[in-house]
Design a protein that fits this description.
The chain is α/β, with parallel strands linked by helices. It contains nine helices and nine strands. The radius of gyration is 23 Å and the shape is elongated. This is F-box domain-containing protein.
């Protein structure tokens, strides 16, 4: 029985080998020669043996500048891909019939190497359960952006403040989060016990999300700070808000400033040891 040579278990060596997999390519002017990644060979290497699989797939993924090949395997009316940002959106025609509680979004779960996901101008809302189902497969996620046009002026968003705990649990590399949520109800602190606080300065924008308005929003501040102590909260400019959302602007600004002050105090309280 053939076995894998021990040299292929040295990741640095395999990476150097994969770097040499290039193809010659000429532009419109044949005088200029350039080299492009040999994606076909990288794919073949990923299927050779277990020792080469992960490194080859990582190399192949780094060379992907578009998700169009993936979306070409899905129903034509379902998804649109934005190349520069690798953003994901739902077409307006499809959004009228899509039901996020069904399997319509499940194909996205198989894109486990996604780093940036955007739902822009969709006509339906996501819930905590739907978001959990999606991000549980996206361990490399750095950006998550959702902008829904379906939320009525009277109803609160179906996403709760507890969704932050889900992002902390499933997406440890998260750097940028923009989502509408309902911050009028704060989950109990007991639900945070199993989540490790993020050490990253995560940028957050909750748009015009409703938030506790009675007095100081201390509970919201404590809940967010316990999960994301270094959160950088951006308050949506008032002129961008819908009329019903402007009243939340100052409160979210206060939340962001308070969390920033708490982070600064925490850093200053850590003893600094000299050599």
């Amino acid at each position: 029985m053939a076995t894998t040579h021990q040299l292929f278990f040295i990741s640095e060596l395999v990476e150097r080998i994969l770097e040499q997999l290039k193809l010659e390519a000429r532009g419109h002017d044949d005088r200029f020669l350039r080299y492009v990644p040999d994606r076909k060979s990288l794919f073949a290497m990923s299927r050779t043996c277990k020792a080469l699989s992960e490194i080859s797939l990582d190399a192949l993924w780094k060379e992907m500048d578009t998700l169009l090949p993936v979306f070409n395997c899905m129903p034509a009316e379902a998804f649109q891909a934005d190349d520069p940002e690798l953003a994901i959106s739902i077409s307006s025609a499809y959004a009228k019939v899509v039901n996020p509680d069904s399997a319509h979004l499940d194909p996205l779960i198989h894109l486990t190497r996604l780093e940036s996901v955007s739902f822009k101008g969709v006509n339906f809302d996501l819930t905590d359960a739907i978001i959990q189902r999606l991000i549980s497969a996206w361990g490399n996620l750095k950006k998550f952006y959702v902008h829904s046009r379906s939320r009525s002026s009277e109803g609160a968003p179906p996403v709760s403040l507890a969704v932050l705990r889900l992002f902390a649990a499933y997406t440890p590399k998260l750097e940028d989060l923009r989502i509408n949520l309902d911050a009028t109800c704060v989950p109990s602190c007991d639900s945070q016990d199993s989540v490790r606080a993020s050490v990253l300065p995560v940028h957050m924008d909750f748009d015009c999300s409703p938030i506790q308005m009675l007095g100081n929003p201390r509970q919201v501040i404590e809940y967010i700070a316990n999960i994301y102590p270094h959160a950088i909260i951006h308050s949506t400019p008032k002129y961008c808000c819908a009329p019903q959302g402007c009243k939340y602007h100052d409160t979210w600004k206060q939340v962001g400033e308070t969390i920033a002050s708490m982070a600064t105090l925490s850093e200053n309280s850590i003893p600094k040891f000299q050599n």
